[in-house]
Amino acid sequence: MQETKKQGFLTERDAAVYMSFMKNHSCYDAIPTSCKLVIFDTKLQVKRAFLALVANGLRAAPLWDSKLQRFVGMLTITDFINILHYYYRSPMVQMYELESHKIETWRGDSFKNVYLQSSNRILISISPEASLFDAVYSLLKYKIHRLPVIDPESGNVLHILTHKRILKFLHIFWKKFPKPAFVSRQIQELGIGTFKNIATVQQTATLYDALAIFVERRVSALPVVDEQGKVVSLYSRFDVITLQGSMFAPLQNLAARKSYNNLDMPMRDAVHGRSCFIEGVIKCYPYETLETIIDRIVHAEVHRLVLVDRANVVKGIISLSDLLQGMVLTPAGIDALLS
Questions:
Q1: pTM (2 decimals)?
Q2: Can you tell me whether residue 328 is helix, strand or coil?
Q3: Quick one: DSSP state of residue 73?
Q4: What is the pLDDT of residues 246-290, one digit of tens each?
Q5: 3-state secondary structure at position 112
Q6: Residues 205-225: pLDDT tens digits?
Q7: Among 137, 170, 263, 332, which is disulfide-ready with 208 (CB 3.0 to 4.6 Å)?
Q8: DSSP sequence for 218-287
């Protein structure tokens, strides 16, 4: 019998399993039978757009330019964080810019508009006939979390593909094809995840400090730690706009209040003031297997796991993008996260 070639810790046969699955399934295959999709016209007020995201439990929406008659970008929670970080001065100073601007005015070329994520990049999308492998590559290469699936004939957005949806789709067929040997190996041995220079925030730091880390480090969530570095909570970008008792409490009174305070509150209070959209801290340990990690992150429906030691000290982050890179692209000899 001919020996199977090896690629690092992967045999050639093992390496092909998930890569082949993604190449043999289209983006259309992964679109659920029922889902929610919200589209914003660029003439909509920025404030109303973010309120609509909260009301629908969404993190992003495609932007339609009625003049150009095409989709021109995505409005995301990251945009809102960038706006707050740029304009916030103190609890006593109102952010009139967020009250008055429309999305299209935030997407111009002036200095103050550079903070809007979609202002200086084209809309990255994909065809429903394209493979899931291509979708994974685009998500990781361009460091985006949402990929619009656009019908090339009608120009309509059919769905917004995410790392979470793709991994869940793979997990549905998990037991229908041979299990590669490497999924039984420990996560620390495989080196899948981020283990150095991990972005965290002290529970005594302010919410504004957390926003600064979100902006500067471009991370989607921060482990909240105590003085010993032990994780006590997880604070995500989505938590920022669902915060109760501060900038959005109550949401229906936002227009009347015309203020977004208080970003000076300690993270301990910000964590306790969150609404029901709480992802929570789902932990994992260095000695656990990749299979265990995948099962946990899919069943918990979260976007990342916090890797801790036995003392509960943060040692790493394992995200959905890390898993897709390690399972799908690395076997193909592609490191999109570093490209």
A1: 0.84
A2: helix
A3: E
A4: 444 433 333 333 335 578 889 998 887 665 444 568 999 999 999
A5: helix
A6: 999 999 999 999 989 999 999
A7: 263
A8: --SEEEEE-TTSBEEEEEEHHHHHTBTTTTTSSGGGHHHH-----TTSBHHHHHHTB-S------EE-TT
